[in-house]
Amino acid sequence: MAHWQGQTLVSGVQEAIGTRHYKFFAGSISKTFTYNVLLHGIYILNEGASDLTLTIHNESTTLKPGQGYQGVMEPFTKFSVDGTSSYKGEVLM
Fold first, then answer.
1. Where are the domains of the chain?
2. Which domain of life is it from (predicted)?
3. Alpha-carbon distance 86 to 27, whole Å?
4. Cα separation of 25 and 78, whole Å?
């Protein structure tokens, strides 16, 4: 077995929920992202010069320029990013 960032890998697949890549996303305008599968995690990076607001399950957090957020949470199928800053990230199953 191999280890990566504290997670145990079995045959190249991480065992923990919320750690398997599903899709990348990116943008520079406010947008609601909706998926047809249950997601358990997200990573997002604010690459721009102004604040962004990430909202999942009616909870929001503000990302300052250059700041990222990574979290594993209760299953979700949609989230929104509000602001005009460039951002990119990935959602996890």
1. 16-92
2. Bacteria
3. 6
4. 12
Q: How far apart are CA 34 and CA 78, in angstroms?
A: 4
Q: Any idea which residue has 């990302």 for tokens?
A: 63
Sign of the four-CA dihedral 13, 18, 23, 24: negative
Cα distance between residue 14 and residue 56, in whole Å: 24
68/70 Cα distance (integer angstroms): 7
- pLDDT tens-digit readout, 36-89: 999 999 999 999 999 999 999 999 999 999 999 999 999 999 999 999 999 999
Tell me, what amino acid is at 79? F
CATH topology of domain 16-92: Jelly Rolls (2.60.120)
Quick check: 76 and 32 in contact, CB under 8 A? no
